[in-house]
């Protein structure tokens, strides 16, 4: 069974530029999560989808971050414009449902200069 | 507001030692608690998931326990090996389906 796929793996941009990350969850998983992990900290939930609807986005900086999950499968997370403090690893995870085991992708390491 | 704390932040042990990693949470109203392993530069690998109705879960040399009343979970690793060196994270699935992570415990097992 294929795991959670993410791309790109690494991205370096200048501040005020825009960037997008892509995630393909495990087949059949209805719930998809985007996390931000800053060096030395645990992941912080940014947004959670159930199929193509948003369950929670309370910690998403909506003035610059946006996410969508069209057709309830793949998802994209966008940052526009990026700030220095957005430098982090962005992790995508999926699960069969809200209360099931979460499986993570390899992450995208973003560096904002 | 749920807060998850992991102590110690770092741990170094000799190979073969049994060890316990701790995870504390402030709100006992959790649905489940999951333990993960993270290797440097990699994503998270799920180790064990304990539902709120369960007391413990076992997988190989790993045993995780959950005590909701005291707000604690422990991950027991038997006969540690150098390959167990990694960061171990716990995550509480709390009210509103929100997952809250601890900052992790960095484990180093010396050969």
Describe the protein's architecture and organization.
The complex is a heterodimer of chains A (113) and B (111). With 113 residues, chain A is an all-beta fold. Chain A has no helices and eleven strands. Chain A has strands spanning 5-7, 10-13, 19-24, 31-37, 44-50, 53-56, 65-68, 75-79, 88-95, 103-104, 108-112. In chain A, the strands form two sheets. In chain A, strands 2, 4, 5, 6, 9, 10 and 11 form a seven-stranded mixed sheet that branches. Chain A is globular, with a radius of gyration of 13 Å. Chain B is mainly β. Chain B contains no helices and eleven strands. In chain B, strands 2, 4, 5, 9, 10 and 11 form a six-stranded mixed sheet that branches. Chain B has a five-stranded antiparallel sheet with strand order 1-3-8-7-6, with no helix packed on it. Chain B is globular, with a radius of gyration of 13 Å. Chain B starts with a strand and ends with a strand. The mean pLDDT of chain B is 94. Chain A binds chain B through residues 4, 33, 40-45, 48, 55-56, 58, 91, 93, 98-107, 109, and chain B through 4, 31-32, 34, 36, 41-46, 49, 89, 91, 93, 96-104.
Structural descriptors:
heterodimer; A: 113 residues; mainly beta; 7-stranded mixed sheet; 4-stranded antiparallel sheet; 11 strands; 49% strand; globular; B: 111 residues; 6-stranded mixed sheet; 5-stranded antiparallel sheet
């Amino acid at each position: 069974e294929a795991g959670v796929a993410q791309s790109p793996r690494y991205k370096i941009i200048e501040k005020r530029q825009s960037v997008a990350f892509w995630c393909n969850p495990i087949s059949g998983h209805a719930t998809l999560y985007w996390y931000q992990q800053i060096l030395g900290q645990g992941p912080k939930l940014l947004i959670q989808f159930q199929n193509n609807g948003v369950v929670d986005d309370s910690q998403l900086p909506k003035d610059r971050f946006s996410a969508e999950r069209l057709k309830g499968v793949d998802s994209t997370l966008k940052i526009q414009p990026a700030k220095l403090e957005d430098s982090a690893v962005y992790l995508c995870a999926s699960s069969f449902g809200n209360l099931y085991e979460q499986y993570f992708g390899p992450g995208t390491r973003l560096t904002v200069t | 507001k749920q807060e998850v704390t992991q102590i110690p932040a770092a741990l170094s042990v000799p190979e073969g030692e049994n060890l316990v990693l701790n995870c504390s949470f402030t709100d006992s109203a959790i649905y489940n608690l999951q333990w993960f392993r993270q290797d440097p530069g990699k994503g998270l690998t799920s180790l064990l998931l304990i539902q709120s109705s369960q007391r413990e879960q076992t997988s190989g040399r790993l045993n995780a326990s959950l005590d909701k009343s005291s707000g604690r979970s422990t991950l027991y690793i038997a006969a540690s090996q150098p390959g167990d060196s990694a960061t171990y994270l716990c995550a509480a699935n709390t009210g509103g389906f929100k997952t809250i992570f601890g900052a992790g415990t960095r484990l180093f097992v010396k050969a």
